[in-house]
Write a structure and sequence with these properties.
Two copies of one chain form a homodimer.
Chain A lengths: L12 H14 L12 H8 L3 H13 L3 E4 L3 E4 L4 H4 L7 H23 L4 H17 L1
Antiparallel strand pairs in A: 1-2
Helix pairs in contact in A: 1-3, 2-3
Chain A binds a DNA duplex (30 and 30 nucleotides) through helix 3.
Chain lengths: 136, 136
DNA sequence: CAATCTGTATTATAATATATAATACAAACA
DNA sequence: TGTTTGTATTATATATTATAATACAGATTG
């Protein structure tokens, strides 16, 4: 199963769907151009409403992770950033991406440090995650 | 001013307050035992409701960042983890903290990679944030 | 003592967010 | 010709978020 929904979570269902699909793409379990279940299929399999799935798909589409076509349905669309720009760093798009996620990273590091997580442990955890995502 | 609230943000106000106080503690702008404004003062200064501030304070208290006393008000309380456990790594509390923030970190790294952020750039950004937080 | 501050509790109200339900439609496809 | 696709609509229900107006007990201060 692609999705593991937690109905008692405070994270909205449509957000959980979005997050898990982004993660699946990053881990290579979903590949560029690959078709994902229709809103109805995923809704039925997960026991949720069709429009909840649609909301997640719309969100993914706006972020560029999904391409939606009436004829072919919804397909994974890996941003050009990760394809063309991965070779030569320092692109304007990349630095924009870094600046966008910086506040979240600052907060995450703050919480980590205040719970005794050393810089070394944090960085090695990052490396571990990178390594797992890259190997697939 | 301690707080910079964004009323058009999708992040709830009480959550913004909580996040910014955690960040201020990590950056040393708020120190252990330091008193923070009363719920009424902060509410008036920020133009929001008293109970909204109270909700943020309650959240911070539950997480261990705040100690609240009727006589002395609300004071910053830095968790013991970051004081005692910072010297010797690999504590059970610390690994628990890492495991708790791992899902968020996985998602953050996923989004970064899919936007062309290299491991080197991500790690150097982490180092930069660590450095700024530690120097204060 | 009287006034003022502290956090907290209560009740009510409003707006927004989230999720579901039941249909419906046009486009594409087998 | 059905079936599937995404999408739109309308209605309903619930939860979350935020405000407003009070009130109370405990502590501090003038």
């Amino acid at each position: 199963m692609l999705l593991e929904l937690d109905f008692s979570s405070q994270t909205p269902i449509y957000q959980q769907i979005r997050n898990q699909i982004v993660l699946a793409v990053a881990e290579g379990r979903l590949k560029d151009g690959q078709r994902i279940p229709s809103v109805r299929t995923l809704a039925d399999e997960s026991g949720i409403n069709m429009m909840t799935v649609n909301k997640a798909y719309q969100l993914l589409r706006q972020e560029g992770y999904l391409q939606i076509d009436r004829r072919s349905g919804a397909r994974i669309s890996i941003p050009v950033s990760s394809i063309f720009l991965s070779s030569h760093p320092e692109g304007a798009v990349v630095t924009a991406a870094v600046n966008q996620l910086r506040p979240q990273l600052e907060l995450l590091i703050s919480e980590a440090r205040l719970h005794g997580v050393s810089q070394e442990l944090f960085l090695s955890t990052c490396c571990e995650i990178f390594h797992r995502q890259k190997e697939v």
